[in-house]
Amino acid sequence: MKLRFSILCITLLISLTSFGQGDNYKQNYNKFDGLALTPPMGWNSWNKFACNVDEKLIREIADAMVSSGMKDAGYRYINIDDCWHGDRDSLGFIHPDPTRFPSGMKALADYIHSKGLKLGLYSDAGSQTCGGRPGSRGYEFQDAMTYAGWGVDYLKYDWCNTEGLKAEGAYKTITAALRKAGRPMVLSICEWGTDKPWVWGPAVGHLWRSTGDIYNCFDCVEDHGTWKSFGVMQILDKQEGLRQYAGPGHWNDPDMLEIGNGKLTPGEDRAHFAMWAMLAAPLIAGNDLRTMDKEIKDILTHQAIIAINQDSLGIQGFCYAKEDGFETWFKPLSDGKWAVSFLNRSAEAKPLNFNWQREKVRDEIFNRELNTAQQWYRIKNAWTGKSLGSTKNVLKAEVPPHDVLTLILEKSGK
Question: Which of the residues 31, 39, 197, 311 has the least number of beta carbons within 10 Å of its own beta carbon?
């Protein structure tokens, strides 16, 4: 009898121990809910400054985001990309470069938060970052705890030096680490679209890169030998077939903006910004906010274009028609509105004669229809705010080369 009782107690103890360990080691691979319900807006250091980052620059950028009106326009995140890292200590905890960030990352986060802004940092799923700094592989939970203690709000997580890793599993690990650390952070999956992150990414992160890196040109490819980066139009083309995966809290990311970095014409800058708005893409500026001129600031803070991007429906736009370098894009908006962009990719001006009455636009994926034969709409030029009549009449215009005409359609009567 005593033997049976002892066996029962041992069995119960093992069962309780196993149950306890199961709870203790159970991981939550789901992102923080309630974040990035519209595409994130902010700034990132890489496109302009690459590895040349320090706390003085970041503080000045935060100041400029406020003074320039970008904060009022909706930009919130100040994201420090690669090369902020120092060494790990004897326990494996990461520290910022003491020369570049002598005050420490917590003090910098406090400064950014005092401006009503949010801090983003960069790390990598591999052993080293793309810039050769310490990656997070093997240190995911320590790094997440460190970032939470510093007050980080956004993590861009890259994919260099990831020998043998599977993307979905690696990103689930960092998500579990962030959840364990307890501070809600936006997770930007920077896996370059290699392993179809749009399929598994919506549960794990808030946005995912759908392509390789953007390159500061309108229509070109930069060949680096073992990899390539892509111009604005090449990035745009790579979004085809992905719109069904995007929506509030989970966005396709065609990479950061090159507006204001000196190689695009004003028309190309407008086209870049308008098409990222049509894509419901994150609007992450990549220029020097401290020195940008009025023309660049006016593009980056243009409220009507930003409103297209930040529309609460969160539906990504689609290409309706294309011919000879001229494309027509539609994006359903809330309150029955539509955004329309006529994109001229060619090197010559293109005449536009669009007969609304003959076109029946159907968004099969999101079950939306623009039938101007049954319902007419007022037309407004999104860039100038000027009225262009209604869909009762043929729209006649000319779109300059490498430029865009963006419209807002609003219902008006039967």
Answer: 311
* DSSP string over 293-329: -HHHHHHHT-HHHHHHHT-TT-PPPEEEEEETTEEEE
What pLDDT, on the 0 to 100 scale, is given for residue 7? 44
CA distance 290 to 293: 9
What size, in residues, is the chain? 414
The residue segments making up the domain with residue 265 are 41-309
**Tell me, what DSSP letter sits at residue 195?**
T
22 within a domain of the structure (yes/no): no
Residue 172 is part of a domain; what is its CATH number?
Answer: 3.20.20.70
Q: Which tens digits make up the pLDDT trace of 232-281?
A: 999 999 999 999 999 999 999 999 999 999 999 999 999 999 999 999 99
* 172 and 287 together in one domain: yes
Q: How far are the Cα atoms of 63, 69, 75, 282, 289 from residue 56, in angstroms, in the given order?
A: 11, 20, 20, 26, 14
Which residue, of 277, 309, 341, is where some domain finishes? 309
Marked catalytic residue, from 213, 253, 311, 363: 213
22: three-class secondary structure by DSSP? helix
Is 158 noted as a catalytic residue in this protein?
yes
Catalytic residue, candidates 54, 81, 158, 253: 158
Q: Which of these, 47, 30, 49, 310, lies nearest to 187 by C-alpha position? A: 30
Whether residue 148 lies inside any domain: the answer is: yes
Distance, in Å, from the CA atom of 194 to the CA atom of 82, rounded to the nearest integer, reads 20
Cα dist from 119 to 129, 260, 282, whole Å: 19, 22, 16
E strand segments, 162-231: 186-189, 207-209, 221-223, 228-230
pLDDT digits 0-9 by tens, 206-216: 999 999 999 99
CA distance 317 to 320: 9
Lowest mean pLDDT among 3-12, 26-35, 58-67, 354-363: 3-12
